[in-house]
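User: Can you predict the 3D structure of Polar amino acid transport system permease protein? Sequence below.
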Amino acid sequence: MTDILPGVRETAVSRADTQRRPLPTATERVVPLRHPGRWIATVAVLVVVAQLVHGFATNEFFQWGRFAYWFARPTILHGLLITLEVTALSAVLGLIGGLVLALMRSSQNPVLRAVSWAYIWFFRSIPLIVLLLILFNFGALYESLSLGVPFGPSFLTVPSSTFSNAMVIAVVGISLTEAAFAAEVVRAGFLAVDHGQHEAAAALGLPRRYQLRRIVLPQALRSIVPAYVNQLIGLVKATSLVYYVSLLDVFGVVATTSATFSGDIVPLLLVATAWYVILTSVISVVQFYVERHYAKGATR
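Assistant: Sure. Here are the predicted structure tokens for Polar amino acid transport system permease protein:
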């Protein structure tokens, strides 16, 4: 008689035991696996959070009454409107510029690739506050801007003072920087699409515009959306720098009001913090739904 291997014998015995074991009745309760470490970590985190909340709520230095007074004052809301305008205009112009630069960077033309690379390298290297201050003093560097033949006649000349508006300076400065970062985000999204997708679409004879709109772009957006929304959140916070070019956004209003009401510096700073948290939270919620839309068919 042939001997049965030990592993096979154990499996057979276990199967036999399982068959003989009575099934659990309806009154028997399944006890879940205990995780004491998880409970200890949860309690520790809750204790720390409770301490932080208690510290914020009971510390009179924060002056929550003054915070409630300033939170929705008309001057604060006007500054918030400026912040939203600068953010919206810079986001749109920066994204358009980023798309153009990404296409130039992916072009077969070496001149376009070189210009795009130089733009991205230059504007990613300059701190935004430095760029805004340069644009703020642009009128001292150039009295006018001309469009024409290099070293030849000019067809159109515009005084630099035309662009000396604080809103224009803020939007142009932030958009120039935003386009450089957005270009890399968009380019990374297109590179994330497997090259086989392009080849399969071409093998099917699909037009290039259809390939881009229905095959490449939906897959690229899965990579572009999270990175670009992260960039947008940074853009919202970067708008606080426009205060240095004499544009009073929500932070600028808080800074100037604090100079007048020196006893309310902390509650005013908390007001600015609260509004920035609200704005970034709204963007995060929109990101969640956009990501869920483009993740259809990719996640299970």
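The domain at 73-142+157-295 is CATH 1.10.3720.10 (MetI-like fold). DSSP finds twelve helices and two strands in the chain.
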